[in-house]
């Protein structure tokens, strides 16, 4: 289906928005009137520029407070409309959005509303223009789509139809199934937006917190299915009011927007996208390593240096199925002047299919400079610039990336670590919603509830995404903290390693003098009050600096290393099916880390 987007979704000037919208691959655009009013370009020049970019102007919006007005205001309303029709003719737009009235002067009279909308449609038709009437969720008298449709049907004019907006419908809890009773030809336009579920005034919710489909908690895909069953064949168009999007990079937001529509079409069964290939585990985590600190820490954790890349300054460290790659070739010239997480290798049963889906969903494909003998590895960039590699490790039917490493004799004292449990990725504030959609759509991971966690200097927002079986877990974090409170003014990244027996692991690490994060005694006093723990377990937790959490399924024990550069390790044990990430302990961990890095 054709795809369109309202200019209000993006930052920048109108010309910048049009350029970004076209470059992303959209077919059309809604011109938001404020963007037109602020532009130095004439309507004719905007029309020509859109045509040069291959964009149709699908809608001009909004026209407000048009229906059920007292007689003394009607002439003023029609005069205002005629002025807008003249602008639309110059702009080359033939569809105008009319929002249900919010004016205190509006009358609660459906017959009068229908009569005046019919009159407006007659005036519009004389200019070759149609009217799409939309029920605002906060409309004074008309605030549901079925009410708006009754008025349109009563007006009975060929140039008058309805505009459906997913936010206005779903935010009120209206049942979208009734949409199927509207003839498809009378649905003149469809606007789509998602939003996080929030208990707040619907107007403020709408104006500041909408997001692209798949980034919030509304069933936009279900609504779209109802609309398509009517025979609607117009564009899928995004209308999103979001403070973050209107401050973000214009081109990047446009790409994120189109990705959301592609994924939405798939959810509604209207696209031939390559099927998602959900990763089955972590092949490796790659760290930029600029000094001796990370090798020393890995040694303390029981990892062995098992190989060196045959053509690059890269080392492979292993313990069980946990593999860490240290790359000393990543320095200030490549954006990693200090130890940091640079890449993740994801196990997948079909790396080519994983890469194909990523490309279809507009993920930036990264060029690979490899020697002839190097294993082929497809990589894409995640929203935070972390590189994601699609791997099939040591499988007889696929070249393994481990073959690029020359084995070396390993001497280490393992600490009971078995595999990578999860990885926490720091997201730039403007890319948090983009990341949530990216991992769901591109990798087929399931997003979990978004949490806000207390940091000593503000709030940390976190959202986990995972495979259905938990073999791949990612925690997406964005810091709402003052600059300078963390390294490089941002939040740390970390790799969580699973232990089969974390008590034994903790004892070994302490015997070796490993650099572990100290936990205040006050935490254990509070833990004793909060949970009725076995006294022996409580003493062990306090003695070893272990943290404790519990959910409906099981329990979670974990500890942390000190921060090295921008990265640290967490050691975890999940007991009896625990599914969380120890979020209740995050404030204690963050406070301890800030205290150690001041």
TrEMBL record:
Residues the entry annotates as binding a divalent metal cation: 134, 165, 191, 239
Protein name: 3-dehydroshikimate dehydratase
A Pfam cross-reference name: AP_endonuc_2
UniProt-annotated binding residues for Mg(2+): 422, 494, 570
Keyword Lyase: yes
Domain VOC: 419-562
Key word Ribonucleoprotein present: no
Catalytically driven reaction(s): 3-dehydroshikimate = 3,4-dihydroxybenzoate + H2O
EC number(s) given by UniProt: 4.2.1.118
Homology family: Belongs to the bacterial two-domain DSD family.
Keywords carried by this UniProt record: Lyase, Metal-binding
Enzyme class: lyase
Pathways per UniProt: Aromatic compound metabolism; 3,4-dihydroxybenzoate biosynthesis
Function field: Catalyzes the conversion of 3-dehydroshikimate to protocatechuate (3,4-dihydroxybenzoate), a common intermediate of quinate and shikimate degradation pathways.
Domain of life: Bacteria
């Amino acid at each position: 289906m054709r795809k369109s987007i309202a200019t209000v979704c993006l930052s920048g000037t109108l010309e910048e928005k049009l350029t970004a919208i076209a470059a992303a691959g959209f077919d059309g655009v809604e011109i938001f009137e404020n963007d037109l009013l602020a532009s130095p370009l004439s309507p004719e020049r905007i029309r020509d520029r859109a045509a040069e970019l291959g964009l149709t102007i699908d809608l001009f919006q909004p026209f407000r407070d048009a229906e059920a007005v007292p007689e003394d205001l009607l002439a003023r309303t029609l005069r205002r409309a005629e002025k807008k029709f003249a602008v639309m003719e110059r702009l080359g737009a033939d569809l105008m959005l009319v929002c249900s009235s919010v004016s205190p002067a509006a009358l609660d009279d459906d017959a009068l509303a229908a009569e005046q909308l019919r009159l407006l449609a007659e005036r519009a038709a004389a200019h070759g223009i149609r009217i799409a009437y939309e029920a605002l969720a906060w409309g004074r008298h008309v605030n549901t789509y079925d009410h708006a449709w009754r008025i349109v049907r009563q007006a009975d004019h060929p140039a008058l139809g309805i505009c459906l907006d997913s936010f206005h419908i779903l935010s009120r809890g209206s049942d979208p199934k009734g949409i199927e009773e509207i003839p498809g030809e009378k649905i003149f336009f469809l606007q789509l937006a998602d939003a996080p579920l929030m208990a707040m005034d619907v107007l403020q919710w709408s104006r500041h917190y909408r997001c692209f489909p798949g980034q919030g908690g509304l069933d936009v895909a279900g609504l779209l299915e109802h609309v398509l069953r009517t025979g609607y064949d117009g564009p899928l168009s995004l209308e999103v009011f979001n403070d973050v999007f209107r401050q973000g990079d214009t081109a990047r937001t446009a790409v994120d927007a189109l990705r959301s529509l592609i994924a939405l079409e798939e959810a509604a069964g209207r696209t031939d996208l390559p099927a998602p290939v959900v990763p089955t585990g972590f092949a490796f985590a790659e760290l930029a390593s600029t000094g001796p600190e990370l090798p020393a820490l890995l040694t303390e954790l029981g990892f062995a240096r098992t190989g060196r890349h045959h053509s690059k300054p890269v080392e492979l460290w292993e313990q069980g199925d946990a593999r860490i790659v240290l790359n000393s070739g990543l320095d200030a010239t490549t954006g990693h002047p200090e130890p940091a997480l640079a890449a993740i290798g994801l196990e997948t049963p079909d790396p080519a299919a994983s890469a194909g889906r990523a490309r279809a969903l507009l993920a930036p494909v990264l060029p690979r400079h490899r020697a002839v003998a190097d294993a082929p590895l497809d990589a894409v960039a995640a929203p935070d610039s972390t590189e994601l590699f699609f791997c099939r490790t040591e499988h007889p039917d696929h070249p393994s990336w481990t073959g690029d490493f020359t084995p070396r004799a390993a001497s280490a004292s393992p600490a009971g670590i078995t595999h990578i449990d999860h990885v926490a990725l720091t997201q730039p504030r403007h890319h948090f919603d983009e990341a949530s959609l990216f991992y769901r759509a591109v990798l087929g991971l399931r997003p979990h509830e978004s949490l806000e966690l207390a940091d000593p200097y503000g709030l940390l927002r976190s959202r986990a995404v995972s495979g259905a079986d938990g073999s791949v877990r990612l925690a997406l974090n964005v810091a709402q903290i003052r600059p300078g409170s963390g390294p490089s003014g941002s939040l740390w990244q970390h790799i969580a390693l699973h232990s089969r027996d974390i008590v034994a692991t903790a004892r070994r690490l302490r015997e070796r003098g490993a650099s572990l994060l100290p936990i205040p005694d006050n935490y254990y006093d509070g833990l004793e009050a909060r949970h009725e723990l076995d006294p022996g377990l409580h003493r062990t937790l306090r003695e070893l600096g272990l943290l404790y959490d519990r959910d409906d399924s099981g329990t979670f024990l974990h500890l942390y290393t000190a921060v090295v550069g921008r990265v640290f390790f967490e050691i975890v044990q999940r007991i009896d099916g625990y599914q969380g990430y120890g979020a209740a302990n995050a404030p204690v961990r963050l406070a301890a880390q800030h205290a150690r890095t001041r």
